[in-house]
Amino acid sequence: MDNDELSRTVKVVRSWLMEARDNVLRQIDSRLKVATKSSRSDLVTNIDRSNEQFIVNKIREFDSKAKILGEEGFGDQVTNSDGRVWIVDPIDGTMNFVKQRNHFAMMISLYINGDGVLGFIMDVMNNELLYGGPDFGVFLNSNQMTKANNLKLKDGLIGLSGPMVIHNDFNMQEIANTSLGMRVYGSAGIDMIAVLKGELVGYISYLKPWDFGAGRILAETIGLKITTIDGHQLGVLSSEPVLLATENAHHDILTIVKK
Ligand code: 2AM
Ligand code: CA
Ligand code: CA
Ligand code: CA
Q: Binding of Mg(2+): at which residues (predicted)?
């Protein structure tokens, strides 16, 4: 994509997200219709659905030939990463949305032939939008972000998934112990924003493509490392235990995982 097309795409996706945010805020005090999916902690609400429908409609108008992978199923059946692929998580942190009406995000990303082009993560209640990509840079609202500070695990806070810590998957308790402390925010988008801003040295969770699609592009652009928990490259369409961290913390965590 040339610079003009990148700028135009960023501008239009930002406008969708601002409109989507207004739609969510207008309904924030309404009674939600909540349904469970795979388990009692895996929720979907009428707003996850209407928000995905809204974003998918916008993408179809803007980029009619592209494929769309949406968590709640309003997109297409995407079986490979050929061509233009948009990935949408309409509400990330649905449990937080339902129980707290806070600490949730919206995420959109664009991949072309498997390469990350643009990622967008919006912290809805905080009104923070992080966006950009390798040929654009990363911005927080209107301010360009600089390269991440390369802290070690022992010198920072680590964001973890609750179930992973409870079951001590991949030696998670030792990872938490080695850090200055663990945080469990419950939204991949909010956790990834914290890593991008340097508030956390890393984040580890079982994730789906719509959970890491945007964050991966932003993270790699500012020099953070994102792989599977055993250090392998992430596929665009795979579901994996994901490790996002500064280069140093990434190395420290892999050493503990492989013990
Ligand atoms: P979601 O709210 O969009 O489903 C903590 O739950 C984080 O893990 C959230 O970002 C959540 O995204 C994601 N997640 C992925 N798979 C999940 C599952 N089966 N149940 C709950 N959360 C899941
Ligand atoms: Ca979900
Ligand atoms: Ca999600
Ligand atoms: Ca979601």
A: 71, 89, 91-92, 211
Mean pLDDT of 25-51: 97
Dist. CA 80–CA 67, nearest whole Å:
10
Predicted structure pTM score: 0.98
Question: Is the ipTM reported for this complex over the cut 0.90?
Answer: yes
153-257 under CATH 3.40.190.80, yes or no: yes
How far is ligand 4, taken at its centre, from the CA of residue 48, in Å?
Answer: 7
Domain ranges, ordered by start, for the chain: 3-144, 153-257
Environment of ion ligand 4 (residues, CB < 5 A): 71, 89, 92
Report the separation in Å between the CA atom of 210 and the middle of ligand 3, taken as the mean of its atom positions. Answer: 6
pLDDT digits over 109-158, tens only? 999 999 999 999 999 999 999 999 999 999 999 999 999 899 999 999 99
Cα–Cα distance, 49 to 186 (Å, whole number): 20
CATH number of 3-144: 3.30.540.10
